[in-house]
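Recall that a protein's primary structure is simply its ordered list of amino acids. Everything else, from secondary elements to tertiary packing, is in principle encoded there. The following example makes that idea concrete.
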Amino acid sequence: MKKYNFNAGPSILPDVVLEAAAKAIIDFNGTGLSLLSISHRTPEFEAVLAEAQSLFRELLNIPDNYKIYFVGGGASTQFFHIPANFLGKKAGYVNTGVWTKKAIKEAKFYGEVEVVATSEDKNFSYIPKGYTIPEDLDYFYICTNNTIYGTEYKEDIDSPVPLIADMSSDILSRPVDVSKYAMIYGGAQKNLAPAGVSFVIIRDDMLEKVVRPLPTMMNVNTHVENNSMFNTPPVFPIYVLRETLKWMKAEGGMAEIYRRNVEKAALLYAEIDRNSLFRGTVAEEDRSLMNICFVMSEGNEALMPEFLEFAKSHGMVGIKGHRLSGGFRASCYNACPKESVEALVACMQEFEQMHK
């Protein structure tokens, strides 16, 4: 049976990327050695790292006054790296769900945290708007896409203080005006690579704003000055990341990737709105392109286990919602083909017919 992968992460990767990675595990770049057992100091891997940085810069149109580095571990390590480096007195956060709550918790170890806005009053079903960013903050922090609840910022906000964004789950899914951000970071396991590596895009002036002495591995300057190789970097995930960026460029870059993502999301949201058995869970203007969340409609809640089994029998993988939010979640990352969304829509339509 054909499988349709909607896992939230680690997520689907392009077939061509998986094929290249599989070959490199056996013989990397004709060296006769496995990618898993080469030295990170070889010219061959240094070329992979350089190309990954170059493609990142090209695809996101990253200005010259920004550095890009890759670091081991998940994005959650940045929850404390950021305030350790930059929180001297007070930082501002927008609380839009689980990941910002965790980031806020870590930041409080280093200084005062002001929650400037929150959507917790409605179970994180919208992106807060209409607030004023205080000008006395060391930095202002947002998470641009919320994988658990399915909300997403649709534009790059203006901030009078350095703006830092967690873009773990929507990086390279749409064009971004990088110049509006002091720092962008994220885990790679949604749109870029297997788990195990995080990316950081940081503006040069931030490197001079580290507010306290830090252990070497926690200081952002360590990773910039050593070009991601102060210690052994995650060689395999970086290689896959490079291959994914090559795939994105070959497919038409950000404009084409974004067009496809809009098309896929519109197709599924239209069915959620039309189908009498389902309903959406977040404000329409804040619906995520990446993580599409929905539940059974009122009066049909008892059908949830049956639909999960029905969908599974039709090849749907990973559509059960997060344990904190329940319901269903279809993660339609860049490599998720339109064919998969069409198959899920057909599955929903067939299930509705069964219960008329």
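The mean pLDDT is 97. The domain at 253-354 is CATH 3.90.1150.10 (Aspartate Aminotransferase, domain 1).
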